[in-house]
Amino acid sequence: MSTNASTKAFQEAQESIPGGVNSPVRAFKSVGGTPIFISEGQGAYLTDVDGNKYIDYVQSWGPLIFGHRDESIEAAVLEAVKHGLSFGAPTEAETELAKLVVGFFDSIDKVRFVSSGTEAVMSAIRLARGFTHRDDIVKFTGCYHGHSDALLVEAGSGAVTFGNPSSPGVPADFTKHTLLAEYNNIESVKKCFADSNDIACVIIEPIAGNMGFVPADKEFLHELRKLCDANGTLLIFDEVMSGFRATINGAESITGVIPDIVTLGKVIGGGMPVGAFGARAEIMAELSPDGPVYQAGTLSGNPVAMAAGFASLSKLKQNARVMAVLEARAKRLVSGMKASAAEQGITMQTDVRGSMFGFFFNDAPVKNFKDAQKSDAEMFAKFHTGMLQKGFYFACSLYETGFISTAITDEMIEETINAAAKVFKAIKNV
Ligand code: KE4
Predict the structure, then answer these.
(1) In sequence order, what E strands does 116-220 have?
(2) Which atom of ligand 1 is nearest to the CA of 273?
(3) What pLDDT is recorded for position 161?
(4) CA-nearest residue, atom 13 of ligand 1
């Protein structure tokens, strides 16, 4: 498989874009080799600039649950652009998508759209601080909530991949209100509440996808809810990644824990830039222009992005059983890969929630970021490279998550498992 054109494109990109990429994790730094440059996506497939085809298990880091160039989403976008790209004024498209999002979540009465997950989380934190008149926040090591200053502390995703969890350029003053706890460890959260009586919110990925794939224990989330209630602290579920990927009704529907604020992104834009945050009416009433908490955005609620998101979520609503089908495929994939690895004496930890899946090359179950960091990063890099060379595109970091789209068939899953068996065999026979 030649990747000469990608190599050339990467060299050229590095002359005008830092690292040659517009988001660090894309640089393949943690798996080695040259990032492949994509020329197009179609259904389950990506095609790179050398003409190589790959079955795509990343789907733009989650948004494309219906695969590339889904007909209904593409038609909605093409129709929307005929009426203009952006107005900076309210449109009915925003109301239509808002009503759809609200209908999926018991915890959400109203929702505000923004243009990224980072914006959604940054705004949700400000709203929580404004609503509670408190300054401190609690986050969990290994959880990633976008790159706003106060949250880029012991973050996951790209921040960890580069081993610099707390980024330079973030003044200590900007993170002194950020308290850290350990995922799935309620005692560590109790310590935060012992250290501060000024905690506005606890923010968590209830189904974490940025330290690798680590769903929170249900009991832990229930304890977290009780702790927040006892202290007048808001609980924020950051579902930018897990929203409409683990389930269509939010983590609340599978854990029984109702958050105060939910942040969303990815799938709700159908591949276009959309983030959102929602909560019950009394909390959202604090948000400008109704209330004093300021938040704004030139392209927030962009009508073309709204059309893509509406088509994406409408299709999910009309096909509610789709998540069960995707989950069955995800389970088949990880169990097949795990069995193939075991034949070569390689141990994998795997987990699935809906269309999300993850795996660690690790001898013990992964319950938090410290456990995840004990995983075999070298084995992961060899696996990623071997699968890429066979035409299977997995997330280029062990601190990420995999996704199944409706375009990925049972046959493709079997193809992937067979390829993994060959890759594990080759790794062991080196
Ligand atoms: P964006 O600003 O990238 O749209 O969303 C930030 C964000 C917030 N919260 C969660 C739970 C997220 O997973 C993300 C973004 N996810 C990463 C993937 N791990 C985006 C990929 C990237 O950074 O290039």
Answers:
(1) 136-140, 178-181, 199-204, 207-208, 214-215
(2) 4
(3) 54
(4) 241
Buried b (16+ CB within 10 A) or exposed e, 315-349: bbeeeeebbeebbebbbbbbebbbebbeeeebebb
- As a whole number, mean pLDDT of residues 154-161 equals 70
The upper half-sphere exposure of residue 209, i.e. CA atoms within 13 Å in the direction of its Cβ, equals 25
The pLDDT value recorded for residue 385 is 98
Express each pLDDT in 290-345 by its tens digit.
999 999 999 999 999 999 999 999 999 999 899 999 999 999 999 999 999 999 99
pTM of the prediction? 0.97
For 381, phi and psi rounded to 5 degrees?
-60, -40
Determine the residue type at 320.
A
Structural domains in the chain, sorted by start? 4-69+321-429 (3.90.1150.10), 71-318 (3.40.640.10)
Q: Is the CB of 240 under 6 A from ligand 1?
A: yes
State whether the beta carbon of 58 lies less than 6 angstroms from ligand 1: no
Q: How far is the CA of 351 from the centre of ligand 1 (A)?
A: 20
pLDDT-derived band at 198, boundaries 50, 70, 90: very high
Q: Whose alpha carbon is nearest atom 7 of ligand 1? A: 146
pLDDT mean across residues, the chain: 96
Check if 264 has its Cβ closer than 6 Å to any atom of ligand 1: no
Which of 127-131, 151-155, 163-167, 188-192 is predicted least confidently? 163-167
Q: Could you give the C-alpha distances from 319 to 40, 44, 316, 396, in angstroms and in order?
A: 26, 18, 5, 30
Cα 358 to ligand 1 centroid, rounded to whole Å: 16
**Lookup: tokens for 259:** 């958050």
* Residues acting as catalytic residues: 144, 238, 266
- Centre of ligand 1 to C-alpha 235, Å, is 19
The tokens 């299977």 sit on which residue?
Answer: 392
Ligand 1 centroid to residue 156 C-alpha, Å: 10
Q: Ligand 1: does its nearest atom lie under 6 Å from the Cβ of 400?
A: yes
